[in-house]
Amino acid sequence: LKTPENFRNVSKRKLCDLIATDTVIQLAQTHKTKPDPNGLVFGTVFTDHMLTIEWSLEEGWQKPHIQPFGNLSIHPGCSALHYAVQLFEGMKAYRGPDNKVRLFRPMINMKRMLKSAHRACLPSFDCAELLECIKKLVEVDQDWVPHSDSASLYIRPTFLGTEPTLGVKKPNKALLFVILGPVGSYFSTGAKPVSLWADSKYIRAWRGGTGDCKMGGNYGASIYAQYEAVDYGCQQVLWLYGDDHQITEVGTMNLFLYWINEKGEEELATPPLDGIILPGVTRQSILELGRKWGEFKVSERYLTMADLRQALEENRVREMFGSGTACVVSPVGRILYQGENLHIPCEGSFSPLASRLLKELTDIQVRHQTHNTLHDIFYRPI
Asked: How high is the pLDDT of residue 369?
């Protein structure tokens, strides 16, 4: 029934817009067995449903579809397969002690995804509408959100160019889809400190490139170096940049150094967002928490391996850790650099600040504890 209000709402939008209320839901007839949350291997288990939304230049965004999880059908000549016109996001949903499911800062992911889409020449979308579609999908599969403090539901939005042509150009067809899966610890070592191989032979990103966007090509090109790191007895790569060996990221994580800096100040530092660093959601959250505490200096600044080596020699390094959606916080215990093992201070399996940050973030994500003004910007209830 078209009321005057409904008519006004329809007239304000274009028929080609992405509209969450248009979502068509087809429920699966059979359901998979849910795994034990204590034995989850990251990215290997998927839920019963998925979200798909098609786009074309001629018709714009089509109706979103929540449907049974299954394989995609794409043309062998599509640009995602040949020219890496593709991007993705990573976010999580948590089950609180009140049994409610909540997403952790999802609008930051949506805005980052939109930025990546612009860089990849994929179509724009309304961040709020896409988030509503994702929330509908999580609602359908909410039983898959683990009843656990150490596990969560990983959400993987993905965006592909699907035009069936080998021409190197903006695609006139695209597919946005979202899949879900319960996950536990990202690293096989669990909460133990990771070891890093630092070598300037390989470069993750460069200024003017796509290092600040979450594109699949950034990760695919890093796999070779990752296996070389393993050959050297390390778990991850510490990516360096420039002749002065600037510290950038570690594996697929942002990096933090907690130390006494050159001026004798207690400081938590991380490389700045200058185009080669991915603006991580957990990174931003750690910076905000540290600044709110006001107990030490919090900086976004350049750090080099020479800075780190000198600080270690002078016993000024307190901790080093990575951060990301998948791992949350992961302490660093050792760096292999120019044939020398640099040992990073780490008390037990988890260094003090990393442990505190992990607890604070877990309290917000899982236990839904109020953190004054941070509470409102950290949560989006389902």
From this structure: 59
Query: Which pLDDT tens digit goes with each residue over 100-109?
Result: 999 999 999 9
Q: Measuring CA to CA, how many Å separate 299 from each of 138, 156, 273, 288?
A: 36, 30, 12, 11
Same fold, 20-26+34-183 and 194-374: no
Q: Which of the four CATH numbers 3.30.70.380, 2.40.50.140, 3.40.50.2000, 3.30.470.10 does domain 20-26+34-183 have?
A: 3.30.470.10
Higher-pLDDT residue of 49 and 11 is: 49
H/E element, 298 = strand 297-300
Closest CA to 51 of 69, 74, 33: 69
Per domain, the residue ranges of the chain are 20-26+34-183, 194-374
Ramachandran sector of residue 348 (left: φ over 0; alpha: ψ -120 to 50; beta: rest) = left
CA angle 71, 252, 77 (to 5 degrees): 35
Q: Could you read off the pLDDT of 305-341 as tens digits, one per residue?
A: 999 999 999 999 999 999 999 888 999 999 999 999 9
Calpha distance 33→291 (Å, rounded): 44
**Helix 352-365 with 281-293: angle, nearest 10 deg:** 110
Q: Are 191 and 150 in contact (CB under 8 A)?
A: no
Predicted TM-score of the model (pTM): 0.91
CATH superfamily of 194-374: D-amino Acid Aminotransferase, subunit A, domain 2 (3.20.10.10)
Using CA atoms, how far residue 154 sits from 132, 143, 164, 200, in Å, is 17, 13, 31, 32
